[in-house]
Amino acid sequence: SEDQPVLQLLNVESAYGPIKAIRGVSLKVRPGEIATVLGSNGAGKTTILKTISGIIDPRKGSIEFKGQNITAKDPAFIVQQGLSHVPEGREVFPLLSVKDNLLMGAYTRKDRDGVGRDMETVFNYFPILRERATQDAGLLSGGQQQMLAISRAIMAAPALILLDEPSLGLSPKLTKEIFEIVVRINRERGTTILLVEQNANMALNASDYGYVLENGRIVMEDTCERLREKDDIKEFYLGLK
Ligand code: ATP
């Protein structure tokens, strides 16, 4: 139904050995929205995404995607259900061409026409990838690899994209460009997005609903419109002035 969240975490706890990285994390991502988890370095943002996509098994709690329990399921199974993860640091296949990286994103799909159309769509979002289509992905700049990683996720035609710090290591100009495309992907394709970011200003401007994470716990949540108005969260939780 309309009200059913695409993704729902209930009291999720994940740890690395004795270190509890996230505790009691509950959050919802509603259909068609961009949701964001904000927090400083080490707050646990990456751990949340890895737990959702099955890379880390949680110690406690549950995760539902499109009404189905995906807690601790195999990452390949979770991708097949329509959930794509763009990891921090991009992780493109450096020895494959740009085009083959994109086709790898579409490996579970049978609709060749749809795959061709989506390839055209990502080339229109990021024209540099069309120019570099036959080159090895390892030769791309950091920003271009981020574009490729996002594009590869689109090629899976997912219902939900998890995006880990798309601004990491990018210039302000390139960060702005990437965020503009993220918003277009959401608006034009109707893809629901969960974004984690240290760059609170960019994320709050692009997103509909936000959660503030501190030391592995969600300490605040609200519409991004309202979060943008609260100067204290920017100072105390996000290190912004
Ligand atoms: P970053 O922006 O650095 O990615 P983050 O908010 O994504 O930060 P996480 O990477 O999720 O934070 O890390 C949360 C906590 O878990 C940190 O205290 C971190 O040191 C710890 N941690 C992360 N990965 C590991 C690991 N493989 N082994 C042990 N501890 C880890």
Description:
There is one protein chain. This protein is of the alpha/beta class and 241 residues long. The protein has ten helices and ten strands. 44% of the residues are buried. The chain is 38% helix and 26% strand. The strands form two sheets. It has a six-stranded mixed sheet with strand order 6-7-8-3-9-10, sandwiched between helices. A four-stranded antiparallel sheet has the order 2-1-4-5, covered by helices on one side. The model has no long low-confidence stretch (mean pLDDT 93). The site of adenosine-5'-triphosphate (ATP) has 13 residues, from β2 and α1.
Give me some keywords for this one:
single chain, 241 residues, alpha/beta, 10 strands, 38% helix, binds adenosine-5'-triphosphate, ABC_branched_ATPase_LivF/BraG, BCAA_Transport_ATP-bd_LivF, transport, ATP-binding
Sequence-ordered SSE layout with sheet pairings:
Layout: E1 7-16, E2 19-29, E3 34-38, H1 45-52, E4 60-65, E5 68-69, H2 75-80, E6 83-86, H3 98-105, H4 112-125, H5 127-131, H6 142-154, E7 160-164, H7 172-189, E8 192-197, H8 200-206, E9 209-214, E10 217-223, H9 224-229, H10 231-236
Parallel strand pairs: 3-8, 3-9, 6-7, 7-8
Antiparallel strand pairs: 1-2, 1-4, 4-5, 9-10
Adenosine-5'-triphosphate (ATP) binds next to strand 2 and helix 1.
Q: Which H/E pattern describes the elements?
A: EEEHEEHEHHHHEHEHEEHH
Unreliable stretches covering 5 or more consecutive residues: none
Give average pLDDT, whole number: 93
Number of beta strands: 10
What's the Cα radius of gyration? 17 Å
Pfam families: ABC_tran (PF00005)
Family: Belongs to the ABC transporter superfamily.
GO molecular function, one term: ATP binding
Domain ABC transporter: 7-240
